[in-house]
Amino acid sequence: MEKRIKGVSYAKYGYIFCIPFVLGFSLFMLYPLVHTIVISFSNYEGASRYLSGRFSVLDNPLANYTRLITENRLFWTSLSNTLKIWIINFIPQIVLALVLTAWFTNRRNKIRGKGLFKVLFYMPNIITAGSIAILFSALFSFPIGPVNYLLELIGVREAPINFTISLSASQYIVAFIQFWMWYGYTMLILTSGVLGLNPEIFEVSEIDGANGIQQFFFITLPNLKTILLYMLVTSIVGGLTMFDIPMLFNDGGPDSATTTLSIFIYRQAFSGSFLLNRAAAASMLAFILIAVLSVGVFYLLRDKDAARLKKEEKALRRALEAERRAG
Question: Cα–Cα–Cα angle for 286, 183, 243, nearest 5°?
Fold first, then answer.
């Protein structure tokens, strides 16, 4: 064993190695966050006001938030679109990912080429959003496009459909693109979680006569609660910050049907009057919404037995402390 040299402090080297991360985090994460919070309470409408010295905090610091909530209908429309598109894509995404996970990890299934299937399912996730948007724009193009040709060929529609001007069709297409891009990633994370479980649990359940469905619902899913929590929280964050696909596919249209919260924030900040203060306020509202939903998910998926035992331990500790003081 190497002996520690007397008089030499090794702690300083740890701090030195942390300096690059601290500098990067402060410059690219902490400063933008603090700056966004500050300008959300200000009259910051474009760089000219900031540079001319007319930048100041408003007399009513919450004025930007109030105007967004009470006067700006597009804010509520974008929030509604974001939640709707996220729900439409997440529910089938997690269901299909769980089905594929059960299929790949079932010990009774002798599937050949599992690695190839996993690569094919994951591949949409590594394609750039711009390429995917161009691909689907071509597929649903009007009046001549593969989808319209297929519908006409099988006799569903005689006349071509302009999907890009249909409010509901545009939302469903964007939701399908998001689902198609991310179900493979979700499947791989869940599959990794299942493969990390103790195989003896499944062997014992097989001896007790449990079939594949019973193993999945009563053994696999309960043990994947932590991973499901991670997937749900990250999906909430990704869903509420959705920007690239709806922007590149249909520019947030038609009639703002695919305008998400991120697109709304972008347009507030970088188009028209350059209302950077309103954009910052909308960003903070989105941050608060994500935080509230994440906390709610943590509460719903918490380990209730562990929480109950913790409460009982605290109650017992208090009772013992009370007896010690009384005695």
Answer: 35
Per the CB < 8 A criterion, the answer to whether 219 and 205 are in contact is yes
Residue 267 lies in a domain: yes
Residue 217 belongs to a domain: yes
| Separation of CA 65 from chain center | 24
Q: Which two tokens stand for residue 320?
A: 């013992």
pLDDT in tens, 260-298: 999 999 998 887 768 888 999 999 999 999 999 999 988
Summarised one tens digit per residue, pLDDT across range 293-304 is: 999 988 888 777
Task: Please give the backbone phi and psi of residue 210, each rounded to the nearest 5 degrees, phi first.
Answer: -75, 135
Whether residue 78 contacts residue 263, with contact meaning beta carbons closer than 8 Å, is answered with yes
CB-CB contact of 148 with 161 (8 Å): yes
Question: The domain that contains 172 carries what CATH number?
Answer: 1.10.3720.10
* Residue 43 within a domain: no
Q: What is the mean pLDDT of the chain?
A: 86
3-state secondary structure 166-198: CHHHHHHHHHHHHHHHHHHHHHHHHHHHHHCCC
Looking at the 3D structure of the chain, how many domains does it have?
A: 1
Q: The pTM is what?
A: 0.85
